[in-house]
Design a protein that fits this description.
231 residues, globular
Length: 231
């Protein structure tokens, strides 16, 4: 468990590519830290053209277990080839004010294929799909209650906002997350108001401001597709 696979189809530039050329191989090998991944990976591209793949670990079949420290991963897959492990990534500290504890896309890519962060406490799980909006990687975490009273086992939720390439905390003061109301595991969604163009992160029906001021973007974006891929 905990492995991430890639499936390669035909790019528009590959004029001789056919369905027979499609292939699948492993992008990430969880060797050494086998933890389940129940979330859908998010994908983004940085200004240097690097393709990033984001995913988190956490056992959705046993959300109240406190038997492991989970991780959030950000893996560079620009070449669409190769299998990477945690040892190929830089371990970061998103809450640190020391830039060396984050990922520098201009220098760290010489030796590392991305970054990962270990959740600070046992039992903190990433059970909602991550997404990237305006340069920030958002995801939620769920920590089960320590209470032995079954009526109190709601758990603590948090919304995380990290620089999508650096992994640095993006909330006020450099914080990497904000607390959410207690309850069952929460899931975050991103939405842009079609009238005002303002973006918000929604937890259920409750809107939260973005970690960083919104810049650019389109208020009328309905869908997207990769123009390199054949229709």
């Amino acid at each position: 468990g905990g492995n991430i696979w890639r499936f390669k189809f035909c790019l528009k530039s590959e004029t001789t590519c056919t369905q027979a050329s499609w292939s699948g191989d492993r992008l990430f090998n969880s060797f050494g830290n086998v933890r389940p991944v129940f979330t859908k990976p998010a994908v983004s591209r940085d200004p240097l053209g690097n393709i990033w793949v984001y995913f988190g670990t956490g056992d959705a079949t046993d959300p109240t277990a406190a038997n492991a420290q989970e991780r959030i991963y950000a893996v560079i897959d620009t070449a669409r080839t190769g299998t990477w492990e945690a040892s190929d990534l830089k371990a970061i500290d998103s809450d640190s004010t020391d830039p060396s504890k984050h990922f520098d896309v201009n220098t760290d890519t010489a030796t590392k294929h991305g970054w990962y962060e270990v959740m600070t406490s046992m039992g903190v799980k990433i059970l909602g799909d991550p997404f990237v909006a305006y340069g920030v990687l958002y995801f939620t975490t769920y920590a089960p209650s320590n209470s032995t009273n079954l009526c109190e086992k709601q758990g603590d939720n948090a919304l995380w906002g990290l620089g999508y390439t650096s992994g640095a905390g993006q909330f006020s003061g450099g914080a990497d997350h904000i607390a959410l109301p207690s309850g069952p595991p929460a899931n975050a969604q991103f939405s842009i108001d079609d009238t005002t163009g303002k973006g918000n992160v929604y937890i259920g029906t409750t809107p939260y401001d973005l970690a960083k001021p919104q810049t650019g973007g389109r208020s009328n974006l309905l869908y997207w597709r990769d123009s390199r891929v054949k229709p």
